[in-house]
Write a structure and sequence with these properties.
By secondary structure, the protein is of the alpha/beta class. The protein is built from nine helices and 17 strands. It has helices at residues 3-27, 36-48, 113-129, 151-157, 215-226, 228-231, 271-291, 311-325, 378-393; strands at residues 53-58, 62-68, 79-85, 137-143, 166-173, 181-183, 186-190, 192-200, 204-205, 240-249, 255-256, 259-268, 295-304, 307-309, 330-332, 337-340, 352-358.
Amino acid sequence: MSEPDLITSAIASILPEIVETRHHLHQNPELSYQEQNTSALVAKRLRDIGMDEVRTGVGGHGVIGMLHGRAQTDAGSRTIALRADMDALPIQEANDAIAYQSANPGVMHACGHDGHTATLLGAAQTLVSLRDHISGNVRFVFQPAEEVAGGAARMCAEGAMEGVDAIVALHGWPELEVGQIGIRVGPMMASADTFTLKILGSPAHAAMPHLSVDPIVVGAQIVMALQTLVSRETSPTDPVVVTIAQFHAGTAFNIIPGAAELKGTVRALTETIRHAMPERLERIVAGICTAFRATYALQYHFGTPVTLNDAEMVSLVVSTGSDLLGASNVVTLPAPSMGAEDFAEYLRHAPGAMFRLGVGADAPPLHTPTYNFADGALPHGMEMLSRVALRYLGSHL
């Protein structure tokens, strides 16, 4: 039996179980750093299928499974990692028509991590069943806290990437049909950094503004001026996003407050632009505050770096997808997303690639109350991950 036949057959035999697992995960979502039950389910499943090594509590509630191929050669072998994220979002689900709607009020898998986790569990079970034909090792990385961009760095700090030669991940994507994948070389997703700015003025009665240093007016000037960081200080060919998402000030309609607080995010597609932004931002803040006689305190936090897909790993995903799905269903993405993914942290340790897995072009957008990972995408994701791992390791069935 040929390689695709063995893999396809193995996936077909476990697909109902994987669909049921995905529904269970969807019904029982857990927020970042709270994935105890999800982690326990993953660890138990890995042990039950005969995973060679299972490590828990990595970077919080992370789980790592290690599969050692039994067809290793005297020349040594490589290790490829496959990664999925497990956490949910603080959103109240509105999918009343499904039987497995979230049972956790105010929490749901609105980004499809239930599908990612189930897909990787399916790939793990498939590859374990083929271990006699595998030359090399496959590491299965189940990550907590992706939504708050903290889990990947913690897992890497605790050895998740030690000895790993390459890594691959997928993300369900509503803009692609089931049976399609999307990928590109280079920047796949943006960096995501955050800042908190506290503006300190002088309070006064609202009827006597001349006695105040109004932090709201100062903050409003800063909000508008920061947009020039994009429109006048960076090239139009170097995409940057500067967004003020929170502006808090005041306690009453007739009191000019003494302070205001602004919070925002900065996104970029190159590390050069990314690291230039804090100085540029503070220069504008300092100038406006000085002009209006206010003072300020600025905290700038570097979060997730740019997700940079390696050219050779992209080529591997493309060739695998073309053989499996047909070349017309492998979409070269024209542009990266300005959203972020802490999968980028793993790419600091080894070359890799993230690809988008189609869940239906008419599916609701990610991070919305009606999003639901498509069951029909599960076998495609399982087979893509399984075959990419085998091809990377040079295993032939």
